[in-house]
Structures are given as structure tokens and as C-alpha cells.
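Still learning. Show one?

>
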Amino acid sequence: MNIQISVITPTRNRAQTLHRVFNSLKKQTFKKFEWIVCDDASKDNTLELLKNYKKKAQFNIRIFSFKKRAGKPKIDNFCISKAKGKFILFADSDDGFKKNSFNDFIHEWNNIPHAIKQKTFAIVSRCLKPNNKPLEPKFRLASKIISYTDLIYKLKKNTEKWLFINKKILKKYKFLEIDYYVPEGILWTEISKKYNLWILDKCYRIFYSDTLNSITHSKKINYPIGQLEAINFFLKNKFLIKERNFYLLLINFYRFKFINKIYFNYKTKHKVNIKNKFLLPLITFFGFILFIKDVICFNISKEKYYKNRKFPKKII
């Protein structure tokens, strides 16, 4: 079969939700796809479940597994390098999606003018809630072509999206492997400096926010270096944020600097320059106050990041 789409799913201790992805894949009307799923040293029965899926699936499943935790950025980079499809879809291990998703994405891509395709890194679509209601209203934009930065930061359409990604362009870039999780928006913003999005103003992905071990559900501060990198990135790109938000980000920047210094002591080179130097002591103070609050309220997850330099094992 000529694989057109590679669906990539990093997973860690998600045996209770992976059925959403598997069942959604089974129902797809477009069949020229593969599922690349990589387990990140799960302690539950994720691997046994995936092996069972592979036995009964009528589509291609490739399973990889890390013995020691590697983190989502490393898994994403590895799976992209193994992908056979022309297009990449990232499906979180607690996601669902509509049965016509792949068919509609391929049809939409085929209808994009050739000259525009060369500068398009992804088709962007909206998401659904589990109750089948849209997570956000329609975009209703005059043009189907837009940059990621304009869509997310200028137009404030910053809820969850689903990207149908051109692998040829994506392979020119890498997710930062500096923590177990680094916000993907850093990479999408970087890509948007050269390439655009094409809008398909429909809902396909079903976004769940109730998964117990998800980032959105967690009450603790996880992945401080990934978060610090994201804050630092957005502070440097001042055109993305209003002045008030800039100073709020700056306070959080110092908050995460304190968290790193006291709990982890990772070597970082993050520095931020501000015009008004007199405000810096005050900003640092507020950052310290938030840090103290995190300590008192036990808000900080103390899991330390260790870079895994090995490759995952292929599960036959």
C-alpha cells in the first residue's frame, strides 16, 4: 500500500485512553495511512495493549518503546524520521477524531494551488469537545492562507488545533530535546517565519482535557526547562504579545528561573533584556514571590530531566 499519512502517537502510561486513537483509526474512510506509536517507558500495560491492537488491526501499526524515559520531543523527532507518509498527523494518546478526517485532509490538500503548496507547511483545522460541540467558533476569515503567528497571536485563535503537516517541510526542523515536554508552539512559530498555514474551517479532532496524567489536567508545575524555553522564546518575539503580557511573562520567566536554580540546577543560557532596567528588581521580586507560593503549596513536580541518548526498541 502506498502510505500517504503517518499518524504519530507518543504515549506514556495511557493504556486507559489509547482506545480512542485506535478506534478512530479503525473507522477512517481513507485507508492509506500508518500508525507509528512510541511508548515512553510506561509502567502500565500500554505495550501489551498495543501488541494486541497490532494483531487485530487491518492497517499498518509500527510500535517502538523506550526502556528509559526519553520525552515527547525526542519521540516526535524519532517518529518523523521513520515516517513513510507524505503527511504527518500528531494524535495525542488520549485523542479521538472523526472518521472522515483523513479523507477530507487529502481532498483539501489536492485542491490547494501548486504554487501555494510550496509555501504551506500544514492544513489547520479546529477541534471538538467530547460532547461533539466545537471547541471554538468558526474562523470566518477572508483568505484561506494565514501564518501561524497571525492566527494564534494576532487574531487570538489560540485554542487547541489539529495540523495536517507537510513532512517535506517539517523534516527541515527539529523539536527541542531539552526536557520531557517542550511546547510545540515554539516550533510552529519558527516554521511560520518561512511557511504558511492553509485553513480548513471544520472540526475533526476530539480534544479531551480530563486525562489524569495530562499537562492540562496537572495541578503541578511540570517540565520547568521546557516552560522556561517557551517563555524565553516569546519574550524575544515581542511582536507577538502586548506590553502588559510581556511583563507578566517576564515575571514568570524569573519564577521558573528560581524553580530551576533551587530544584534542578540545569545549565541554561536564558537572558532577557528590557529597556527599563529600574523595573528589573521589582519583576525579579514578583517572580520570587510566585516561586515561594509554589513551594508552600507543593506546586512543583520534582521529576528531573535526564537526556536519553539511546534509540527506542522496535516491538515486532
Observations:
- The chain has two domains: 5-212+308-315, 224-296.
- The CA atoms of residues 182 and 226 lie 4 Å apart.
- Residues 224-296 form one domain.
